[in-house]
Amino acid sequence: MSITRTRRPDAVAAAAARPGAARLLWAMLATLALAAALALGAAREAAARGAPESFADLAERLSPAVVNVSTSQTVARPSRPLGPRLPENSPFRDLFPELFGDQGGPPRKVSSLGSGFVISQDGYIVTNNHVIDGADEIKVNFTDGESLPAKVVGTDPKTDIALLKVEPKAPLPFVPFGDSDKARVGDWVLAIGNPFGLGGTVTAGIISARNRDINAGPYDDFLQTDAAINRGNSGGPLFNMDGEVIGVNTAIISPSGGSIGIGFAVPSAIVTKVVSQLREFGETRRGWLGVQIQTVTDEIAEGLGLDAARGALVSGVVEGGPAAQAGLQVGDVILSFDGKDVKQMRDLPRMVADAEVGKPVRVTVWRKGKTHTLKVTLGRLEESEQAAAGSDDAPPALGAVEALGMKLTALTPERRAAADLPENVEGVLIEAVDPEGPAAEKGLRPGDVIVEVGQEPVRSPADVRRKVKEAREAGRKAVLLLVHARGDLRFVAVPLED
Question: Does 42 map to a domain?
């Protein structure tokens, strides 16, 4: 008789000798192997997402470069409504000074707080323009308790970025910029700032969305995050997990003014270019094309014969501007700029702004069913030029017909005067609009002037009817009109009735 010293191997061997038990054993082993593989896969996936066990090391390393920006501004006291006239020694004056005091009063100082971050050891600091806008005095407060006066190097209201400079006694801790274009939805981010004046506060979250347009400016391309951003966080940095700044916290959507998990940051891809120009020139120097543009809708694309709604539709060209000199025309659809596809209208302003002033670029346009490539030498964007609506490339008129649910008539001098239309507006006058017709659905009104139909000038109501007929015979679902309405030129795609 032998003595078994190790029972488990013997038991396994015995079980394996029985066919049914063997199958059970292999099933158990396979289940354990699968569970181990799943656990390993989950661990690898978590590592790939960069989910940290703690943000403590990152926060400790980055916080010294994040600052509090304190501003003060002198403002006039608002006028107060006067109460009844009372003697100077009346006790009511002391009891109710807000009613019986003097109107207005001496100017008072208003203070506000924001955030910022150091980008160089010699004292350059980035913040939001709205944090320091109108300030008489700016102070930068550091985490070690030091406070330094700051001067404004330059500002850019269009992207809400400002660059400040302090004169430190010793090199300052600073943080580098990262590449916001590499940030993906779902990536972890860290926000450090000064919410509600509480001092350095750290919050964490993820990138919720990219390329957000919140109508804050002409170059909206925000990163959206659910990291808590509150009042006072403005101008603070949004970090990736490598400790690089990929955004400048700028705005939130909230009914109460507090964070509800919808915050927006200007991406570093925009900030770095702005900061570089402010640092070098004290101002931005953006490219300028000299066009007014609008979105290409599905109906407009159909009216133009485009395969899809893409590009930017030129609705105005600034007289004497770079686009006009290169031959761009009203009705062109800009499909690519400097070798990059213009997928949607709002892409173009950013492309042009990022381009070098004076640089010749190739612009591909869709014009009357064909593509054309033009060479444009960019100018420099200026407020007066940007505000220009563009020149009218319009035509003349004659007659009286009905089309597209409108009564059209010739634009005579008498009708021009009655409609209070400028002398340079020519075309066909809309005299009446059927409220149930397709033109009414698109917002056309009596007094509007049809300048072009299908990108061809119209000089009489008969011209309009002929062009509509041609569009219908070509199998189009809509016809494209260029209309002078309420002082502006705009394209309207009106559905063709069956």
Answer: no
Burial of 39 (0-12, 13-18, 19+ CB in 10 A): exposed
Domain count, the chain: 4
- Per-residue pLDDT at 14: 43
Identified catalytic residue from 63, 120, 130, 133: 130
Q: What is the pLDDT of residues 169-221, one digit of tens each?
A: 999 999 999 999 999 999 999 999 887 667 788 999 999 999 888 767 778 88
Note down the domain range covering 355: 288-387
- Tell me, yes or no, whether 10 lies in a domain: no
* pLDDT tens profile 103-161: 555 666 777 789 999 999 999 999 999 999 888 899 999 988 899 999 999 999 889 99
pLDDT in tens, 416-450: 777 778 777 888 888 888 887 888 888 888 888 99
Are both 89 and 149 inside the same structural domain?
yes
Q: Is 233 annotated as a binding residue?
A: yes
194 annotated as ligand-binding: no
Strand partners, 366: 333, 371
| 0.85 exceeded by pTM | no
Q: What is the CATH number of the domain that holds 381?
A: 2.30.42.10
Structure tokens at 346: 């709002």
Q: Looking at 180, 208, 234, 315, which residue is catalytic?
A: 234
Choose the catalytic residue: 160, 332, 347, 448.
Answer: 160
160 is catalytic: yes
Contact 353, 287 (CB under 8 A): yes
Q: Domain check: are 407 and 460 in the same one?
A: yes
Q: Is 234 annotated as a binding residue?
A: yes
